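Sample entry was shown:

___
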Amino acid sequence: MCYEPGASPPSPPVSGGAGSGKQTELQASDGNLFAAFSATTQTENAPGVVILPDIRGLHGFYQELALRFTEAGINATAIDYFGRTAGAAMRGDDFDFWPHVLETRPKTVAADVKAAVDHVRSADGGGATAVFTVGFCFGGRASFNQSASDVGLSGVIGFYGRVSPRDETDRDAPLDKLANYSTPVLGLFGGADQGIPTEDVELFRKALDSNGIDNEIVIYSNAPHSFFDRGQEQFADESQDAWKRMLGFIESHS
């Protein structure tokens, strides 16, 4: 998993936007009810993000991250993946997530993302007109692939999402799907990530370029997987740079 219990997202380099958040439930088009955390800013005409967590689903790190986005004047809703198999209730850190991860499917994740995008565009979710996805690890890959969706995103952002196939049965790798991408892409990776070779990331960059997809792919040379963590003080500069790139990407494409 990406973040251990107790991990906390870094604060954004700019702040001043007041915001508030609450736990809620959203409903996908297939009737699935799932947990979410919705945070809204008082900044007028603010953009919005849908946060796609790591394989543990919605937990404290991502609820706090949603609030950090409001400090930067951005509405944010973080979602859970496991409403269909584990219900919509919030869960503790001892939740056995693996059986539920194995039951997720790209189409159902996309349906839940669409419900969250609709929420962020609604008055309850902040009334954003420009909406982005921001994902981490499992959610990073899912966020990249939302560029091929038809929900009208303004861009997609992924932290350390695996871009190559895991094995010969993997049909959801971004490298195999980006011919259908239609939005700008921001990818943030650790050069010391043991699970994502930099060669794969460079292939992703070149493929995005070849397909005419506006992109910014960043590799932080000494950073590991999950470097974006307040507790990893040795990577504070990388985390602040990642924040600046995210906020710049959102601003330039809103």
Remarks:
- Residues 21-129 form a domain with the Rossmann fold fold (CATH 3.40.50.1820).
- The chain has a mean pLDDT of 95.
